[in-house]
Design goal:
The protein is α/β, with parallel strands linked by helices. The protein contains 21 helices and 21 strands. It has a 9-stranded mixed sheet with strand order 3-2-1-4-5-7-6-8-9, with helices on both faces. Strand 18 and strand 19 form a beta hairpin. Helix 16 crosses helix 20 and helix 18 packs antiparallel against helix 19.
């Protein structure tokens, strides 16, 4: 996936996108200090492997604890912090032998970090790929923060408390399953708190983050304090100050069915969680990806003309029920794929078949009819031989219930692949409801509804499902609020 270059400079002239450094807000630092000290009341020392300018550890200094911090760059730390300019990941790789791990540097009572959020595209990972892959063979090198968290857990002594404010993509992302399992197998989870999307807005970052507080050793597990995402930084400050958290058993916030991957789910009610015992889309339908051209500019045209004549659906985005093709594919694409190894066609037997095509990028999730004679990209597309099933599924996928399943449970990143869509639960429904849902979807497609007009059809679907599935008033209100604020609440 290509990404345009964007540079966000901090006050010190450092590109924040490349360095991944965003200053921790003081109220976050104070909260983390208070909670980690509560879990380790006799703590005397603190370590931060990416200390930056020391914002996160300053409250520990003020409490009289010994604080040590390292960083790949020197940003200038306040008095009271012992600083060394070191590359934490390289240092970990070089001294990860068991005896060296037990050195005094890692004998701290508390480890805290606001690790870099940048991903595999960052220059640091590209430049050090071989070393990082050999150091983190199980966790992977998908993101800087995941390596920082894994290394910190390895270095922590028994019963040490660890706290991170970090990207929340690891909570559900498929690539981060090994990190979730490492946390569950080696630590107790004390806090899991989603942060508002505007938390770092003042620094030019629009990122979804969370606060997670762990303790080395699973024997320390008690109730987990959780909090769904606040809609603003102002509201979030109040939540932390007043400690407005829900207490959950660990089993309530980990999705561990046979089709699941130990996703961490924040504040999903038992009523909604029960749906994940239902069959998933992949149990009944074919959920597939299609064509990756390797060079869209050469093989796709926004207009139908000349050799560009095959309808191509790449991402319906915010559209529901009905969408025109995103572009038109070259007519001779099958021949091109024979000689161009970068032009990949998956599931050829499903080309040109009628089905459903789903959005792949962006926070919103929607599904549209894939008409016969069309092709599709790597976004999830769904096929069935039962036409009635196809229409009722099209209606169901555009419901608020599925919006929550996809964006609140299965995946918090902006890219929805077929792997996630295939795991959407499909509860059992009566024949009359299946028929009624199909009628709504057919009507919406026949009317060629736009994004705004689609809402009236979604409302009818929500009403039908609420009655059929026995959704409580609380659940209906929750789903409605989530769907309408998904950009900020997911």
């Amino acid at each position: 996936m290509g990404r345009s270059q964007k540079i966000v400079y901090g006050q010190n002239g450092v590109d924040k996108r490349e360095s991944g450094y965003y200053a921790t807000p003081p109220f976050i630092a104070e909260f983390i200090a208070a909670q980690t000290c509560a879990h380790s009341p006799n703590a005397s020392s603190v370590f931060d492997p990416c200390v930056g300018a020391g914002e996160l550890v300053l409250p520990f200094v003020q409490r009289g604890l010994k604080v040590e911090g390292i960083d790949i760059s020197e940003y200038g730390v306040p008095d009271g912090i012992t600083f060394s300019q070191l590359d934490f990941l390289k240092y970990f790789a070089e001294c990860s032998a068991p005896l060296l791990m037990q050195s005094s540097r890692y004998n701290h009572d508390i480890l805290v970090a606001n690790p870099p959020y940048n991903c595999h595209e960052v220059e640091y990972i590209r430049r050090n790929r071989d070393l990082l892959q050999s150091t983190f063979p199980e966790i992977g090198i998908h993101n800087m923060y995941s390596m920082f968290i894994a290394a910190s857990i390895d270095l922590a002594k028994p019963n040490a408390v660890l706290a991170f404010i970090t990207s929340d993509s690891f909570l559900t992302g498929r690539a981060h399953k090994p990190l979730r399992e490492k946390i569950l197998n080696e630590c107790s989870l004390h806090h899991l708190i989603l942060c508002p999307t505007d938390l770092f807005q003042g620094e030019g970052a629009d990122v979804r983050t969370c606060i997670i507080i762990l303790q080395k050793g699973t024997h320390n597990q008690r109730k987990v304090k959780t909090c769904a995402r606040s809609l603003s930084r102002f509201e979030f400050e109040s939540v932390l100050r007043k400690r407005r958290f829900a207490d959950r058993d660990l089993s309530e916030i980990v999705l561990n069915g046979k089709a699941d991957a130990n996703e961490f789910i924040v504040n999903m009610s038992s009523e909604l969680r029960a749906f994940f015992a239902s069959p998933r889309i992949s149990d009944t339908f074919r959920c597939l990806t299609g064509i990756s051209t390797g060079n869209d500019a050469s093989y796709l045209s926004p207009l139908k003309s000349g050799n560009f004549s095959v309808p191509f659906y790449k991402n319906p985005a915010s559209k529901r029920f009905f969408a025109l093709p995103n572009s038109y594919l070259v007519q001779d694409f099958l021949e091109i794929a024979k000689t161009n190894k970068n032009f990949m066609i998956r599931n050829r037997e499903y080309l040109y078949r009628e089905g459903i095509t789903c959005s792949s990028m962006g926070v919103a999730f929607g599904a549209c009819r894939l008409p016969p004679g069309a092709t599709y990209g790597v976004n999830a597309s769904i096929f069935t031989d039962d036409v009635q099933d196809q229409w009722r599924l099209l209606a169901y996928l555009n419901s608020y219930l599925v919006t929550y399943f996809v964006r609140g449970v299965l995946n918090r990143s902006n890219m929805i692949t077929s792997g996630y869509v295939s795991r959407i639960p499909v509860p059992k429904m009566s024949a009359s409801t299946i028929s009624a849902l199909g009628d709504i979807a057919r009507s919406a497609v026949a009317d060629k509804v736009g994004s705004q007009e689609a809402q009236q059809y979604v409302t009818r679907i929500n009403t039908l499902l609420a009655k059929e599935l026995g959704l409580s008033d609380d659940a209906q209100r929750f789903l409605s609020t989530f769907a309408q604020t998904v950009v900020r609440a997911a």
